[in-house]
Amino acid sequence: MDLKEIIKPENLVYKRTECLTDKTLSYCPGCGHGTVHRLVMETVDELGIQSDVIGVASVGCSVLAYDFMDIDMTQSPHGRATAVATGIKRCWPDKFVFTYQGDGDLAAIGTGETIHACNRGENITIIFINNGIYGMTGGQMAPTTLLGMKSSTTPYGREVELMGNPIKITELVAQLAGTYFVSRQSVHTPGNVRKAKKAIKTAFENQKLKKGLSLVEIVSNCNSGWKMTPVESNKWMEENMFPFYPLGDIKVEGQLVQK
Amino acid sequence: MAKLKGAVVVDVERCKGCELCIVTCPQKVLANKAAKVNSKGYHYVYMENPDDCTGCTNCAVVCPDGVLTVYRIKI
Amino acid sequence: MGELKLMKGNEAIAEAAIRAGADAYFGYPITPQSEVMEYLAAQQPHKRTGMVLLQAESEIAAINMVYGAASTGKKTMTSSSSPGISLKMEGISYLAGAELPALIVNVVRGGPGLGTIQPSQSDYFQATKGGGHGDYRLLVLAPASVQEMSDFVKLGFELAFKYRNPVMILSDGIIGQMMEKVELFDPIPRKTEINEPWALTGKSSDRKKRVVTSLDLDPYGNEKHNHELQRKYKEMEENEVRFEEIDCSDAEYLMVAYGSSARICQKAIKLARLKGIKVGLLRPITLFPFPTKQLYSYTNRIKGILSVELNTGQMIEDIRLAVNGKLPVEHFGRCGGVVHSPEEVLAAFEKIIMK
């Protein structure tokens, strides 16, 4: 059968959401950031909230997120995205406000802002990308870098005696009274992408309930920082990241999920 | 039983040749080993075995760069 | 005549914020400015005008909440004292870089470091020369009375929106803590519509998306942005210089002092006049833009200037730049939280300037 007979508007089953701009993403080939950007914008598209959403980009690889998302956005100082989002949401309680932060931004320099925004129960959504490394500055150790994992500042692997432990900030904020929905997902397989999309959608829809903060962590790859091919990095992520950062919902409707 | 036929359209200039779609495709439809590169020098993906595509969209779902558009018909 | 009240400077700031139609205040307690948030909390501004009041977890979080709220076109402010303002400086640099209007109050105490909780003017450099990273300026207002603490909140918001630039009220522990009569201005209703063409209100289908950022990775783009900022600062220098002159018309000498130190000098020049010394007081009200031209105009008619500051000599540099070597300019001031008396100032004036 000729492909031309299939490629017709009436047969379209998947295309890039128009809530993304035409700009080519600045991320490395195979980086999960692009997929998560798309899921967030698909969510905005499907919920029909483009005119009511305000995003907060942070500092790190995703600093230019505002170039790729076709929505009103601001760009926060390093680590302060949840404080910036708090300022916006308090002034616009009926807008959908979200932050898009990496692990360095959210779990190292911004730990205080993260914990207090979660604890206050700000009615915002946090999209948290955890790839266990500082991508933009050249692959240095992150708060989430696994023990034994190599980075440019742990060239012989992270040792607990020298560099301390990796932090599971998502489990930590799930303990706080102000969080309503906390989930950890990934975007490396079609099935995982669909689950992540569902979690992100829930996290946005929750803002209408005004019952607290929703956080979705995406455990993602950093093939450049990890010095692997994209396909290898996803395999490494499954074998090494997921045992320490297990996927699934951690808190739903304000209740911790019993495992 | 109705058979599904699919087609994938590649935005060649956006493709970074990461190959995530290639390993994801259950029908082994996609490849990027041809000598051709886009203007950035990436080996972009193409349908090597177009007859096997079922239009399942898995390739487009995992594509970080939103490169792929998928069409499907029942025959 | 507006409503008269006896108030603390810090309380006047807070009351003026509500009356100026502020949309949000984000703060963190620190002596000697804690009354600002305490007064606001007691007033329940969410009930009076719908104004948001939030005690943040740190000064850093507070200034970033200001950044977020300001990016939506709302009238937003924070207040703190010296060590807290240092913490806010990163956020203030971002506000300036992203061209956001906001009001920041510094009720200065002695430094450096944790210093002391007593009044000081040692944050002059920080306030007027930028303070955070990058080539930027704040428009700086220096109140010398509780009345001006109130008035400058209203003026500060007007200037912040006029220039899309953060405005700082540089007060100190004396003006913040002292009680005076204040005539409160009539309340201005909060804005009901956001018409600023840059404000984040949600991308409706009839317009392009808006981005509030201080980042431009293209160096030529960033250079252009810097030049645009400088053009704005020039415009402030042309239009917004404010100062007060007391007994200057026949003066043979000048004291230059701002804020609480100007109040002390007001008494000092009176004491001088009793002794037959013709000295006037020039009080800069805006510290940036600085009354450079006005000071220069004195170069042919007076014999010398004493800069009187509650620090070891900061504003004196701007005075010296203004007179460009044509007059002797000397400094006197107590520091570290010690406040000079009018008699001390006069004695110093006679010793240093009239020698």
Itemize the secondary structure elements and their pairings:
The complex is a heterotrimer of chains A (259), B (75) and C (355).
Chain A: H1 3-6, E1 12-14, H2 32-47, E2 53-57, H3 65-68, E3 72-75, H4 81-91, E4 96-102, H5 103-109, H6 111-120, E5 125-130, E6 133-134, E7 140-141, H7 160-163, H8 169-174, E8 179-186, H9 190-205, E9 213-219, H10 223-226, H11 230-244, E10 248-252, E11 255-256
Parallel strand pairs in A: 2-3, 2-4, 4-5, 5-9, 8-9
Antiparallel strand pairs in A: 6-7, 8-10, 10-11
Helix pairs in contact in A: 2-9, 5-6
Chain B: E1 4-10, H1 20-24, E2 30-31, E3 46-47, H2 58-62, E4 68-74
Antiparallel strand pairs in B: 1-4, 2-3
Chain C: E1 3-8, H1 9-19, E2 24-27, H2 35-43, H3 45-48, E3 52-55, H4 59-70, E4 76-80, H5 82-97, E5 102-108, H6 124-128, E6 139-141, H7 146-163, E7 166-172, H8 173-177, E8 179-184, E9 211-212, H9 219-239, E10 243-246, E11 253-256, H10 259-274, E12 279-284, E13 286-288, H11 292-296, E14 304-308, H12 315-323, E15 329-332, H13 342-352
Parallel strand pairs in C: 2-3, 2-4, 4-5, 5-7, 6-7, 11-12, 11-14, 14-15
Antiparallel strand pairs in C: 1-8, 6-13, 10-12
Helix pairs in contact in C: 1-2, 1-7, 4-5, 10-13
Keywords:
heterotrimer; A: 259 residues; alpha/beta; Rossmann fold; eight-stranded mixed beta sheet; two-stranded antiparallel sheet; 11 strands; globular; C: 355 residues; 2 domains; seven-stranded mixed beta sheet; 13 helices
Radius of gyration of chain C: 21 Å
Strand content of chain C: 15-25%
Task: Give the end-to-end Cα distance of chain C, rounded to a whole number of Å.
Answer: 47 Å
Named at the architecture level, the CATH assignment of chain A is 3-Layer(aba) Sandwich
| Shape estimate of chain A | globular
* Strand ordering within the main sheet of chain A: 3-2-4-5-9-8-10-11
